[in-house]
Design a protein that fits this description.
Structural class: alpha+beta
Oligomer: single chain
Strand content: 25-35%
Shape: globular
Radius of gyration: 24 Å
Number of helices: 11
Largest sheet: 6 strands, antiparallel
Strand order of the largest sheet: 16-17-18-26-21-24
Length: 462
């Protein structure tokens, strides 16, 4: 069996914790590990790590690689040059598998769902594998426990298969009244976005129902390289796998997902999974409260003091605060979209950004300059790199810095500084026993994270 982890989403409904360049699958929302890492571990229980592929966008590939390399160096990460939704992403990953291996069963899972009962999840997958080997494209449905209007639904037919059902149709997110009817009927399941099929079956159905994707896919050759050619991929339609294949094929079967499941698709769903106090409140971080009820307060960096909230969500980050009624959390995406249209970077990135070597915090930014505080953890180092558009000036605050600049080593103690000229090849390293903190001043235009040319990297981001 092979596993494909879809890790390219933006997580806009969990703003302000989730940002475009650091979406929810990379966040440690509830555990000591990210949702992406938890997804990998869930698959690695029954799939060899060399058979697991993560598919993500070029914006996230460095973070996805660095997180997954903490668990395994064998997992493959495919980098989509453009975001084109789930159908092209799955198609490319399946073609990659088929070009290098036999016609195997493939399990496709999102990277941002919460599933705690991994044993029952594996049991469900084993049931789905039987149907996949019979030529079905299997979808795993969640028995609805209430009339949710934020999910798509799958309607099963009366035709029962071994451990599953033939699917009658997929339906869009319903209004509340219709969702009540769906739940009462017992014939509708939530669409969990988890699929299983033989590689050849999926590509055959793709050819039949979405030939525009299949035609472009035929141009890709993964025999000697995993690179996805931009010149061809840019012509892929932006379409979900539901629209491209699942809603059109007559080979769709549903297996009931026996494990717990939460897509963590809103702050209301985060509230549902958190422990509550005697008043139904869920508090995360530094919170002092008086007389609130049935509310979520999520503090990431500051003290949040709340009084008399009811059915409210309050989320605090370094640079943004969200406050809304709990039944309006699906509308957070509208705020995210407004910020994006206004070119407000608050939708894009946090002030503090975590990297495999440590983290940096943006202190100030203006026309042609940007100032950061950078911490490099003990024994870590940044990649050997250069920049085409910016020079840098580093001042050591604490710890000891080893700077490699154009092949020469410099050892800097607190108070010492060094200039990194435009296009100079350099690396900041900390081979010492205490964390290194520096101030970095960037000068140039544009000042963007993409202005990095890597030559060597211990985290596999070259």
């Amino acid at each position: 069996m092979y596993g494909i982890i879809l890790a390219g989403g933006s997580g806009s409904r969990l703003w302000p914790m989730s940002r475009e360049l650091y979406p929810k699958q990379l966040l440690n929302i509830q555990n000591h590990e990210s949702l992406l890492q938890a997804t990998y571990k869930r698959l690695a229980d029954f799939i060899p790590d060399s058979n697991i592929i993560a598919s993500t966008g070029v914006k996230h590939v460095a973070n996805v690689k660095s997180q997954l390399m903490k668990n395994s160096e064998k997992i493959k990460v495919l980098s989509e040059p453009l975001s084109k939704n789930t159908a092209p992403a799955i198609a490319v990953a399946v073609k990659n598998i088929l070009s290098k291996n036999g016609d195997d069963v493939v399990l496709v899972v999102p990277s941002d769902h919460l599933i705690k009962d991994t044993g029952k999840f594996e049991t469900t997958v084993n049931k789905g594998e039987k149907l996949a080997n019979l030529g079905y494209i299997v979808t795993f449905g969640v028995q609805p426990s209430y009339p949710e209007t934020g999910y798509g639904y799958i309607n099963i037919s009366d035709t029962q298969l071994e451990d599953g059902y033939k699917v009658s149709r997929f339906v869009e997110k319903p209004d509340y009244e219709l969702a009540q009817k769906y739940v009462k009927s017992g014939k509708y399941f939530w669409n969990a976005g988890i699929f299983m099929f033989k590689a050849s079956v999926f590509l055959d159905e793709l050819k039949k129902h979405s030939p525009e994707i299949y035609t472009i896919l035929e141009k890709f050759d993964f025999t000697n390289s995993d690179e996805i050619p931009y010149i061809d991929y840019e012509h892929m339609p932006n379409i979900s796998v539901d629209y491209a294949v699942m809603e059109k094929s007559d080979k769709i079967a549903l297996v009931k997902l026996e494990s717990d499941w939460n897509d963590l698709g809103s702050w209301a769903s985060i509230y549902d999974t958190e422990k509550k106090d005697e008043n139904g409140n869920a508090f995360v971080g530094h919170v002092i409260d008086l007389d609130s009820k049935n509310s979520l307060v999520y503090s990431s960096s500051k003290l949040c003091a709340t009084i008399g909230l009811e059915d409210t969500v309050l989320v605090e980050t370094e640079d943004a605060v969200l406050a809304c009624k709990k039944d309006r959390t699906q509308d957070v995406k509208k705020i995210y979209d407004i910020l994006k249209r206004q070119n407000d970077n608050t939708h894009l990135i946090h002030k503090t950004v975590y990297r495999p070597w440590g983290f940096y915090t943006v202190l100030t930014q203006g026309d042609g300059f940007l100032t950061k505080m950078i911490q490099v953890n003990t024994g870590q180092k940044l990649s050997v790199q250069s920049h085409n558009y910016r020079s840098e000036h580093w001042v050591v605050l604490s710890g000891t810095a080893k700077v490699v600049l154009e092949g020469k080593d410099y050892i800097l103690s607190p108070g010492n500084s060094i200039d990194i000229p435009l296009k100079a090849i350099h690396s900041l390293q900390n081979p010492y026993n205490e964390p290194l903190k520096i101030i970095e001043v960037q000068l140039g235009d544009p000042l963007i994270e993409e202005d990095i040319i890597r030559y060597e990297d211990m985290y596999g981001r070259v």
